[in-house]
Design goal:
Helices cover 19% and strands 26% of the residues. A hairpin with a 3-residue loop joins β12 and β13. The longest helix has 13 residues.
Length: 247
């Protein structure tokens, strides 16, 4: 697991965490909130020097649609539909919500462009990682080998039990699950972060540029919400990327 950073707050725990050294470009910040943030960024952004910036969110569909935020876009009362946001625009924050699904941040330190992705099992099956990499390539000229990726906390292979029909869905979509599936009864345990890491590698990322958090939402009830553990009332982690406006 990579080293994680958070603001010191021994009394009540961190509001957010980030992977040390990611994304590695001047002014850009990326991280993920904890249970204490209650699915909001209002207390987090001032701590990162991003206070007052517009925050772009999505009406998430569990698919592979990636929406690009351009220079003239502003957040709208009706959220755009999709499961990924990409931008090179400074002075905004893009974020996705999750409560067991795999949140991923992609960033190109050369082109100063990035994306946030929400990969549940359906989005993973539909290869949202490949869609995110392709969006950055087409829209901003990014090369996959230059991209860096951060994978925020999600349910791990220790806890993500699914039925055999889910395995069948991945097989139909021609995913290789070798080493990422442990059978048990009529189903088994799926390594969803591992499937997405493999998709990042297949999309051309350097393995040294992939930073998984290694944290399981289901195993850490004091830090993170989990839909599997908490049910429909579970809170949400927000995984975000942003930078201050250019001086």
């Amino acid at each position: 697991m990579p080293s994680l950073e958070s603001p010191p707050d021994p009394a009540s725990g961190p509001l957010w965490l980030e992977v040390t050294g990611f994304p590695g470009a001047d002014g850009w910040r990326a991280g993920f909130t904890t249970r204490r943030a209650a699915g909001e960024l209002s207390e987090v952004l001032p701590m990162l020097g991003l206070q007052g910036l517009p925050v772009f969110r999505l009406s998430q569909l569990h698919g592979a649609e990636v929406v690009t935020i351009g220079p003239e876009d502003m957040p709208r009362p009706t959220l755009p539909k999709g499961d990924g946001l990409a931008t090179s625009r400074r002075g905004v924050v893009v974020a996705v919500a999750s409560a067991d699904c795999v949140p991923i941040v992609l960033f190109d330190p050369l082109r100063r462009a990035g994306a946030v992705l929400h990969a549940g099992w359906r989005g993973t099956r539909a290869r949202i990682v490949r869609a995110g990499v392709e969006t950055l390539r087409r829209g901003f000229g990014s090369r996959p080998e230059n991209l860096k990726a951060m994978m925020a906390p999600s349910i791990g292979p220790c806890c993500y039990r699914v039925g055999s029909e889910v395995l069948d869905e991945f097989r139909v979509a021609r995913h290789s699950l070798d080493g990422l599936w442990r059978a048990e009864g009529d189903g088994g345990f799926l390594d969803l972060p591992g499937v997405n890491r493999r998709a990042l590698l297949e999309s051309g990322l350097d393995p040294e540029h992939i930073h998984p958090s290694g944290l399981c939402t289901h195993c850490l009830p004091t830090l993170f919400p989990s839909y599997r553990r908490d049910g429909a009332g579970a809170g949400r982690i927000l995984t975000f990327l942003g930078s201050p406006a250019a001086p």
